[in-house]
Amino acid sequence: MPLEGIYEPSPSAWVRDQVALYEGSGGTKGTTLLDTGMPVVIVTNVGATSGKLRKTPVMRVEHDGVYAIVASKGGAPEHPAWYQNLLANPVVELQDGPVKADFTVREIDGEERATWWERAVAAYPPYADYQLATTRVIPVLLAEPLTH
After folding, report:
1. Where is 94: in which H helix or E strand?
2. Residues contacting residue 63 through CB under 8 Å, at least 6 positions apart
3. Which CATH superfamily is domain 13-145 in?
4. pTM here?
């Protein structure tokens, strides 16, 4: 069930460019965050207010076919804009390399969050510094395969 709507590219040039390269190559290029060499996936979601399709590269944190989506915004004091989109419209398309699939997203807490936070920091160590840089608890959401 592909998401429907008009795609609204990010106002951020690096995000627009990364998404275009990733998708334009069929998931064979642009698969790492800038020059870090660390893998990313592309999350397509529906905007909470605009209703338009939004696409965001996020760090690849995967375990047994489930993905963590970490709303870090680099340790900024506020959540990234897409966080509210995922809460309002929890069905997303996630592209991991050449593979696209539909997922349902939910925010996690407690022990489940602690386990996934550990996995997220192992996949992308700067998350630990981002948490230290902000007073907010960085949200962790799980993207679980959508069952039809």
Report:
1. strand 91-96
2. 116, 119
3. Electron Transport, Fmn-binding Protein; Chain A (2.30.110.10)
4. 0.95
